[in-house]
Amino acid sequence: MFKYYNNESYFLDVLKNKRLYFASFRQFNDPYEIFGFLKNTDDGKSYVDKKFKDKIKCCCFSLTNRNYLLWSHYGKSHRGFCIEFDFEECIQNSIKNNVHIVNYNGKKLYGFKVDYNSYELEVSFSKSNKILNLNQSIELVRHKFADWEYEKEYRFITEQSEPGFIEIPSESIKSITYGYNISDQRMKYLDKRIKRMGINLETRKLKLACNIGQLV
Q: In the chain, where does DSSP find H-type helix?
């Protein structure tokens, strides 16, 4: 899986410190991310809860490193960076709906592909107690509207009170892709800087296929 970066400092921090940032859903660019659409099975009424996602934090990836729109939106207008990760060896087990469990340094992470359709979770609760369990929270945050389907998103979430970094094994970082608009001079500079960190990774620069809006 792949993660796009606009910011060079953030990109280098991942490589140097072997860590990923887990953000609050309130920091995301989709305004619906902070809403929980809940239907009470007791009275049949629907509610919107704006606070339920505060208890979990998220790190997002894509299943592709060649998406034209992702490079435009998250890759510094094709002058940015994309890191490939492989967490297969770290998966411990799975729970229902293809949710994978990973444990890093005592931090339990839950990974899943995003399902692109509108979704309302049917739950039973009182108006004074709308606390959702972990499985219910996962069901809500693994759904997005179909407009976002081009992202081919995969998410890791964790239960922690504040946004912050979680360390990852160095062997989970596999390769680096540069956007096709980055200058060769800048790419060579970054390659040298990364090698000075003692990191030896495959790097490549994307090319733009003429007139068809595809990256190769």
A: 8-17, 68-74, 134-141, 184-196
Q: Is residue 54 one of the residues assigned to a domain?
A: yes
DSSP string for residues in 54-66: GGEEEEEEES-S-
Domain for residue 82, yes or no? yes
Do residues 63 and 154 lie in contact, with contact meaning Cβ atoms separated by under 8 Å?
A: yes
| pTM of the predicted model as reported, rounded to 2 decimal places | 0.90
Number of domains in the chain: 1
State the residue range of the domain holding 92: 2-174
Residues in the chain: 216
CB burial of 155-171 (b: ≥16 within 10 Å; e: otherwise) equals bbbbeeeeeeebebeee
> Smallest Cα–Cα separation from 63: which of 169, 179, 155?
155
Residue with tokens 């081919």: 152
Residue 25, in any domain of the structure: yes
Residue of 50, 58, 30 lying closest to 149 (CA atoms): 30
pLDDT digits (tens, 9 = 90+) for 149-192: 999 999 999 988 889 999 998 999 999 999 999 999 999 999 99
